[in-house]
Amino acid sequence: MLPSNVLFIQYCTGGIMLREPRTIALDVSVSSNIIMTATTEESDAPQPYFDFDVPRNLTVTVGQTGFLHCRVERLGDQDVAWIRQRDLHILTMGASTYTSDQRFQVIRPEGSVNWTLQIKYPQTRDSGVYECQINTEPKMSLSYVLNVIELHARIQGPSDIFVKSGSEITMVCVIQQGPHELGTVFWYKGSTLVEPLDQENDIHSGDRGRITIETDWTDALTSRLKIKRAVQSDTGNYTCVPTMARPASVCAHVISGKLWLT
């Protein structure tokens, strides 16, 4: 008896049946080696992995565009998706967007390892966990936390200011919380933008330097509106309008004659 793992192929030459077990047995052995090699090569294929050296906890203010950066190395033919964890909604897959909310978009330059989720005009309801996911088996994912905070401006002092005609009015607007990217501050009197009167081509040269605005950042974003030599026409509602926070208002009253305070 020949071993069971030896295969025979019979073929005819001049009417004679020939058998060559050794040659065929060798071929089977080579085929097995090929299969084993292919399996080994498949298991040794490079696997994608995340670059953990990126910020994964982002704080932005309402309306300030947020960016969540996901770096995936050795992606190969796999795809990257962004998923909102609270409802498991797939926001993007590859370069495509899978939500009707056009505020969400994936940014990935050609050939880049960066898959950045952009959130435009974020609201507090957008706060939560987002996952960057690779569609391997099993799935690979990395979590990110987005915090959207609503800032409020505050004008120091009472909500009504009373000053005597000819005096100086100083209004100080402060924003104390949030990330450093707080934008800038605009001042309005009613619905009219207040602009400093410090240009040489002002209509009334005597008004030059009468109205100034100073904005600086120390521990908070602070904007100071100063009106020198106040006149009755300066009476009105003044509003501090930051680009990244809710506004605050104060009413200034310029009194002619004697000022009575109670």
From TrEMBL:
InterPro entries: Ig-like_dom, Ig-like_dom_sf, Ig-like_fold, Ig_sub, Ig_sub2, Ig_V-set, Zig-8. GO terms for cellular component: neuron projection membrane. SUPFAM superfamilies: Immunoglobulin. GO terms for biological process: synapse organization. Gene3D superfamilies: Immunoglobulins (2.60.40.10). Pfam families: Ig_3 (PF13927), V-set (PF07686). Residues 48-135, 138-251 form the Ig-like domain. It comes from the Eukaryota. PROSITE patterns: IG_LIKE. This is Ig-like domain-containing protein. It comes from Anopheles stephensi (Indo-Pakistan malaria mosquito).
